[in-house]
Structure formats: structure tokens, C-alpha cells
Design brief:
Elements lengths: L7 E5 L5 H16 L3 E5 L15 E4 L11 H22 L5 E5 L4 H13 L3 E6 L14 H13 L2 E4 L2 H11 L6 E3 L18 E5 L8 H13 L5 E5 L7 H11 L5 E4 L8 H6 L3 E4 L9 H8 L4 E3 L5 H7 L3 E3 L6 H11 L4 H18 L2 H9 L2
Parallel strand pairs: 1-2, 1-4, 2-3, 4-5, 5-6, 6-7, 8-9, 8-11, 9-10, 11-12, 12-13
Helix pairs in contact: 1-13, 3-4, 6-7, 6-11
Amino acid sequence: MERTKLVRLCVATKIWSSGTGWFATELAQGLANNGALVNFVAPALSPSSWEPSHRNITRLTPPRETTDHTAKFAARVSKLNRIVWTLYYLFIGSALSRIVIFSMPDHEVVSIPTFFMLRLLSKKVLLIVHDPLPHDFRHRGGQRFRKMLLKIQYHLASTLVVLSEAGKQEIIRTFGIPDGRIRVIPHGAFALAGGTPLPGSGAILAFGSVRRNKNVLQVIEAVKALRSRGHSVRLVLAGGADPSDEYCRACLEAASEDPDGVVNMLQFVADADLPDLVAKVDAFILAYSEFNSQSGVAVLAGLSGRPVITSFAGGIRELQAAGLVGVSIEEPICVATISKAIEEFYELPTSVWQAKAESGRARLAAELDWTAIAKRYLAL
């Protein structure tokens, strides 16, 4: 294996599960594969099989915070405890490292002084910006102060790494960060599921956390409308859901009106269960809007040998150029355009989509290899 010049660096994240948590561990593993010595600061990963195992990685493990938010005081104490230990391990991990890479750091109130201190210590701070604006930024009031904090955070980082060209343009336009301080490096591939044959089951999968910008409610209504016209399509909903969220409750209510056509599996899906889930569906549906990042779900779809029915928003369009195949949902994203795209998908035989998806899967695997992606981080 080609070895890079020996580099010591620190990779830090507050996340221990789901795609954003696994992103950090795959990046750390890729950096180590390139010969770098990595101090990896993150709570113990879930599931534990995602823990990095490379000899070049030193693991620094702050405690997790509780995910039970019914006991608010205990949750706050748990969060504070995790933050304090994270900062402790971060400064240990960065002591011998010239470069510190953050993926999903703590809130700006914590990260801004942290970045400032690291810059004073002559450290190079690389911030991976998964979403230039928070997912719900456009759907909540009182965000002017948060926007100001994000701008300070972005300016304090030595270099910003975004996952798509669309994300880069969003940061330039919204926060005024110079073009030369932003680099575009794509999301690596999570090979969680094998390329099983398309079943021709008539089922499509909406996977991931339920958020307004994913237009999950419109997808549900589109499937219900198609079924009312005699189409046999079914929708499988799988991923995270917050019943306290008004939009999520609306989605759950809409799904309950047609339990045969909308299969509700909205709960955490273990990676061991993903192959069986994917094997039952013909395609993933991603009807995203106001989306400027990269989609780990789209990567999962492509690497699982599944086409997508999607708006090709943000970095999903770039994945299409790298091998992702599917049908485009036209603007504006609504029940009518989603229904049309689903019908268009099922106009082609399963065998045709099978061939397209397999070809695209091979191209994506080569393009999104974590070791190759990590080499681009080392070049910064």
C-alpha cells in the first residue's frame, strides 16, 4: 500500500450512532489506512461493531449522554458530563497533533471557544460541515442569533470541508466564507447491505429520520393517491421518528389511514437488519427539498444496488454523476410530481433497473472508497 508522510491528527465527534457517527469512524479508519496516526475522540459507538480497529488509531472515549429526554434535569447533567469529558479528551488528543478534524461538533456555544483555543495553540482546525444550515433552520423562528454563531464558527475553522458543491455555494452565499477556504470532499460509502436482486415487490423505501425538508408527508399522500387509482405500490417507512414533533405526528397519522399501503417501521434500524429491509424493496425514495448536503441514504441505496426516486437535490445530483441511478422528481416537490415519478419508475421492467443498479453500484464503490477519500483530507 502506498504510504503517505507520517501525520499525527485528531478526529472528534459528539455522535456515536447513525450515519453521522459512522462517518467519523470510517474517516478515522481511512486516515489510518493511509499511514496517519489518529487520536479518535467519540463516545462508544453503537453498534460496537463500528468501532475502529486499526493499530494506528488511539481511542479516546467520553461517556455517552442519555437519550431519555423525559427526565430533563438528568438529561442536561448527562449532556454536560459528556461535553466536559469530550473537551478533556480533545485536548489530550490534540496535544501531539497539528491537525484536528471535527465532524458534528458540539453546539456553537461550546465549539466556538474550543476552535479559538485550538487556533491559539497553532492547530489547524478542519470542520466537516454536513449541513450548512441545520435541517430545521428554515422552519423555525428566532434563528438570527444561531446564524450569527454558525458564521463565527465557520470563520474560526482553518478549512471547511463540505460534502457537495451545493453545500459550498450555500456557505459562500449565506455566510460569506471565501471560496479558497472551502473544499468539497464527498461522503464515503457505507457498505451495510449487499447487492441483492430487485424483488419486483412494488415496495419503495423512505429511510432515515422524518424531517419536513424530506417531504415524507407528501410521499405518503402520493402513494395513497396511486393506490386509490389501482396502483399496487407500497411504501415502507423506516428510521427515526420523534412523536413529539408536529410534522412527524402528521406523517404517522397519514400512514395509519392505509396500513396495507404504508408500512410503518419508524424506529431505529440496526445495521444488521438493513440487508433484509433493503432486499424487500425495489427502490429508495428521497423527495428532498431545501437540501444542500450529501445524503448518506442515497449512498446506502446506490451501494445496496437499489435505484432511487429522488429530487436529486444537493449532493445527490453529484452522486448521480458517480453512478447513482434512478428517476427524477420534478419541481415543485408535491404529491402530483412524486406520484408521476413513482409511475415513471415502474414503467421500466425490474430486469432493466437491476442491470442499471448493478453497474452504478460498482462505479460508486470505486468513487466513494474511504481510504481514497481520506487521502484527500490528508492533502489539505
